[in-house]
Amino acid sequence: MLLSVIRKLDEEDAIRYTIILILPTRLPPRPFILSLSQKECATALCACLLVYCFTRGKIVPHQGQLEASLALTSGRDSAVIARTGYGKTLCIAILLLLEPGTITLTVSPLKRLQMMQVRDFMQKYNIPTIAINEDTPQSPELWAKIAKGEIPHLIVQPEQFRMNHGHLPRLARLLNDRGFSSKIARVAIDEAHNIYTAGTVINGHPAFRPAWGALGKLQVKLPKTTTLQALSATLPGYIYHTIHQNLGFRSDSLIISASINRPNIIYATHVLVDGRRNLHNLDCIIPDPFHPPMHLPKIVIFHGEKIETSNVSQYLNARLPEPFQKLGIC
């Protein structure tokens, strides 16, 4: 009952309830609130109240999350470029809380990530959510609920939207049903950089997962009012340009960019001898000799190819003393 009341608040009542329930120090900056129109202000404060209530006072949206949400409520596409821990998940959840009765499709790359996202949306925000991939049960009862819009949040691997291994997945067939597709109010693309890194031909190499590069074709099956939101921590200009073109972002789309700096991460440069394929460049990561109680700091090494990644893992593992190999240290 309280939640339905919050969703209908006008600006004046939204301000009153917010002041009563939430400490001013936890609210977004006052200049940001004052810069909004009356309708936007009411929406932003209602979002704060809803999230505050659903999380039992633990979370209040910050300015960037509200900006992303307001873009979608006004019919604008958006890109959220922010580090892990910024709260990109809440950017998706806010609209589901504000607009019950609508469906959000979230495109997610990995099954393990889907599982974590389902848990977060169900436990933190009490939003019915299901992961759709090749392991999703074919239960008629489950798919009847999905078709009726009774599950408002579907976290989907991109392969489920198109022909896959010679057959058309169930969700792809369901999208041809206007009764279902008309309920889809927004599509969130998590780890959106995959549209470029996994979905396009790069330097003559075929796309690793072509389904990512085909996401733009979804527009044909969705209402014109469906908004799109791309979320990633890594969207340099050339990748964002590819995403913008692939998805067909509207001309008034919004980019929300936050610093990717984290207090527990240190950036450093290291000169490579004979290029990145010379694995001896990585010898500095594991001291020689390595022995307890030596501590290895957490280091993330990115490679654009699976074979290179595998070679690096095997090489670093082999540099450890035999009792420490294959323990997941590297």
TrEMBL record:
GO terms for molecular function: 3'-5' DNA helicase activity; ATP binding; DNA binding; four-way junction helicase activity; hydrolase activity. One of its GO terms (cellular component) is cytoplasm. It is an enzyme of class 5 (isomerase). SMART domains: DEXDc. The keyword DNA-binding applies. It comes from the Eukaryota. It catalyses: Couples ATP hydrolysis with the unwinding of duplex DNA by translocating in the 3'-5' direction. The keyword Hydrolase applies. It holds the Pfam family DEAD. InterPro entries: DEAD/DEAH_box_helicase_dom, Helicase_ATP-bd, P-loop_NTPase. Keywords: DNA-binding, Hydrolase, Isomerase. Its EC number is 5.6.2.4. GO terms for biological process: double-strand break repair via homologous recombination. Residues 69-253 form the Helicase ATP-binding domain. Gene3D superfamilies: P-loop containing nucleotide triphosphate hydrolases. Belongs to the helicase family. RecQ subfamily. This is DNA 3'-5' helicase.
